[in-house]
Amino acid sequence: MGQGAQGFAGVDLHRRRHGHSLSRSARTHAQELLRNRWCASSVAGMSTILDAAAPTKLRHNRPYLLLMSGKTTQLVGAGIGAFAVPLIAFQVTGSVARAGLVAAVGEVGALLAALPAGVVADRVDRRRLIIGAALVGAVLWASVAVAGVLGHLTAAHLAAVLFAASLVTALEGPAESGALRAVVTPEQMPTAMAAVQGRSAVATLAAAPLGGLLYGFTRFLPVAAAAVAHVAVAVCTAFVRVPLSADVATERETHPVEALREGLRFVWSRSFFRVALLLSPLINLTVNGLLVAVNLDLVRQHTEPLLIALIDTVAGAAMLGGAVLAPAVLRRVRVGTVLVAALAWIAVCFVAMAALHTYTAYVVLTALAVLPLGPANAGTSGYVAAVTPPRLQGRLASVMSLSYLLSAPLTPALAGGLLAATGLQVTLWVFAGVLAVAVAAFAATRAAAGIGTPDTWAADALPDDAEA
Question: pTM for this structure?
């Protein structure tokens, strides 16, 4: 349920780099797609987004298709597994509060790995890093499925796997961001970012009903699907034959600590990055906390899994609609305006959700809240990619990911604790009220006011060899 929310202010960063856009004959391209047809099929649903605005179609960029296909498959699998995690945690602990603590432990791994992950992604071969991380993730999720089927799964085992899996995902994330940046040209960036939002929406749309369906067969089938999806991203990445990393030998000449400092200096040098890093943890905490509280309450009331999944399904459809509209919106409206308006609209929807306090309100208002996230996240992610030198992409991704990761361990624990102590309605009002205050504070800083339409981003960019 939190996928859309995690991308606030472009924190869910996906960066692109020019230089490896392929120009092949149609015949050669067709042969390549046939050889890798199963990998490319998962992005077919986003073709209309890509075709709408790109002068040179991204659908003809084989490395891009492979990376997007693998990651889309992984996101669907991860979403299926994530759907089942709170239900499984509740089953093995018997308490919504303890289930929240299990999920919180899982987020700590990503928090610990966040900053080192960016340095690693800029210093090693990104293809190997993505493949290795994906295969480790597959083993971790498979262990939960096997232990569950054998009747030996414990809360400690589940928490340990969630911890290790989040650590692995944190290592993979900056590498994947830098890899995508390596195969997309600057002029395609806004459309590519919209496709990334469409990818998340497709994953949300598919994961929720599939998770509910698989959980209905057996509660450990969704985590088995997550393991298979990790294998898929490793296979698709292995087929990419172009370089995905910058000059890693040069980067290795810099001490890792100094490399990290360089990334931190760059982030702190930009007012928008500073404000996003300081305020978005609170916004992410309240948005995702509210959604987790609703989910846990529905589990506690023994709501049918498919009804819980319906909220994610409707939200995914709304996110996909927003992603389709994103290229047209970003060509006409300043990104700063889109971002502030989107955050204000989310706050309004969540206040209404707390006031109405019904299942129908959860479904409708969650969908309405996430609708503008497509343009907002595509715009902010595209801007961040445009102004950041390619050699700093991994470190920028890891530093900015802190805006989500700092709140991630607290979210399930706080949501579960408030829910157990005060009930759902009070919990919703607490999260909605704090969200409204945080959004007002963000708007008051005017940090996003200077972000214009994509044709103005080049003026804000630093050259590749600029000092951070």
Answer: 0.65
